[in-house]
């Protein structure tokens, strides 16, 4: 008796299951609409056409010059303008964790050539697989290199060194530079100025913004 019962229950389950899967054409109509403004959007949907704009699209591009949240102000550098490179700088200051992060990024992206201890003798160069001698950051030639020039080196590359602009965003570039400058300050370079003590990060960001605004105004 129990066997029959379970067969019947299983059969019923199967029938119900299959019936719920039925998505024949008849079910594709929404049926009665009780709340039309919930069923039919009154606003233009993102990917629909739109008669209000000359290009006929609803999706709008950001206003020219808009900067995404948490992204840095543009640097206004032009590739090859080495004079501008040298005077370019940042007001950003970094705490110990950020300096550590700069070191982590340096070891990922730069140490293979510049060497983990920054002497220009990284594994790629010392193995003889890379022909050009990477900059030795402990050498007098680089100890006092302006930070803006370093920034440009990362952004645009330099001779045999490629650009790292797509791997490192603006803040990361400065964190790596701060990490290099910290080492240099301990090896005869200029005093280290990227430390947190000078300004809190949000004040620094505001200071950068003000400098940038002035630059924009000056360029007008
Ligand atoms: C594939 C090897 C390689 C990697 C990786 C590399 N560099 Fe270089 N870098 C070089 C070489 C070679 C030079 C020397 C270029 C020259 O002066 O001809 C150089 C030069 C530089 C300079 C001096 C630029 C100048 O104006 O003279 C800086 C600063 C620099 N690198 C920073 C970095 C940083 C930061 C990273 C990591 C994000 C990095 N490099 C990754 C090979 C590399």
Task: Please provide a written account of the structure.
This protein is 46% helix and 0% strand. The chain is elongated and about 90 Å long. The chain contains 10 helices and no strands. It has 220 residues and is mainly alpha-helical. It binds heme C. Heme C (HEC) binds at residues 109-110, 112-114, 124, 130, 132, 134-135, 149-150, 153-154, 158-161, 164, 176. Residues 109-110, 112-114, 124, 130, 132, 134-135, 149-150, 153-154, 158-161, 164, 176 line the site of heme C.
Q: Which oligomeric form is depicted?
A: single chain
Determine the mean pLDDT: 87
Residues in helix, %:
40-55%
Secondary structure: number of strands? 0
Spans of at least 5 consecutive residues whose pLDDT stays below 50 are: none
CATH classification, class level of the domain at 82-219? Mainly Alpha
Describe what is shown at a glance.
The chain is mostly helical and 220 residues long. It has helices at 2-21, 36-39, 82-87, 96-109, 111-114, 123-126, 140-143, 147-156, 170-185, 201-219. The model has no long low-confidence stretch (mean pLDDT 87).
């Amino acid at each position: 008796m129990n066997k029959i019962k379970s067969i019947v229950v299983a059969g019923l389950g199967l029938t119900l299951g299959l019936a719920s899967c039925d998505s024949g054409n008849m079910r594709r109509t929404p049926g009665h609409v009780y709340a039309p403004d919930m069923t039919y959007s009154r606003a233009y949907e993102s990917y629909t056409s739109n008669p209000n704009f000359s290009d006929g699209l609803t999706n709008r591009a950001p206003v020219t010059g808009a900067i995404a949240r948490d992204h840095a102000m543009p640097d206004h550098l032009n590739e090859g303008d080495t004079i501008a490179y040298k005077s370019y700088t940042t007001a950003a200051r970094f705490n110990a964790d950020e300096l550590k992060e700069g070191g982590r990024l340096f070891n990922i992206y730069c140490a293979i050539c510049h060497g983990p201890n920054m002497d220009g003798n990284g594994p790629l160069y010392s193995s003889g697989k890379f022909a050009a001698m990477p900059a030795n950051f402990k050498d007098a030639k680089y100890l006092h290199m302006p930070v803006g020039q370093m920034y440009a080196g990362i952004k645009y590359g330099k001779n045999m060194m490629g650009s790292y602009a797509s791997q490192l965003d603006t803040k990361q570039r400065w964190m790596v530079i701060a990490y290099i400058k910290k080492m240099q300050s301990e090896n005869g370079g200029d005093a280290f100025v990227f430390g947190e003590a000078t300004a809190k990060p949000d004040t620094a960001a505001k200071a950068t913004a003000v400098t940038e605004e002035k630059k924009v105004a000056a360029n007008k």
